[in-house]
Request: fold
Amino acid sequence: MKDGKKAAIGVGVAAGLGALIYVATRAKAAPPPPPPGRANLYGKVTNAITGNPIGGVLVSLNGLKVSTNTGGNYIFEDLDPGAYLLRFTKEGYETVVY
Reply:
């Protein structure tokens, strides 16, 4: 951003059975269900002000890393149940951590 201020990232997340992360999802289509005892975590990253999706956001989950696609969507599949630290980072935006 030209004025040096960082915009906020809005995050929608959905957690599969057993994951301890919860926030309402904005993703339109759920991935296939994970194997029994495992979980999928997916969502859509949006600009908190405009609501527009943000591509190229680095999403990390306890050392696993993916980037959002042009529609702001990301997914982590076949996760073990447990507690996770979820981080969203992109230059020009505030980092968000759950």
Remarks:
- The first strand starts at residue 9 and ends at 15.
